[in-house]
Task: structure prediction
Amino acid sequence: MKFESPQKLISAFNFSSLTDIVMLLLIFFLLSSQFVLQTGVKVKLPGAKNNEQAQATNFSVTITDQGRIYVGSDEVGLNALAGKLSIIKKNQSDNLTIRADKSVKIDIIIKVIDAAKGIGIDKFTIQTEKISF
Result:
């Protein structure tokens, strides 16, 4: 007796292995994006509903809740702030990012802006966290 095996071409593609690879890549990128560390001083930023994502820059001033002022990761006094900013300004953009803790008095922020304006910086970005209402 002669058995015939069908020699038909498979016209359907099996997507299950491709779906597994895409899911693994998606999980990998979602998990690895959570491990991006912000360098510098930790502060609790004020919240805003409509904020834009700030670009990471070394040309930033951080003000902690104790009133300490940091340029990058170096602590400076208010009197030495203008000198430190003028040194860093030479090889950075003209936009200064201010990261102030939400409990900082506005007086300190105004003094930082005044010191920056004294050396010719006219653009400022105050960094906030995005909150949902």
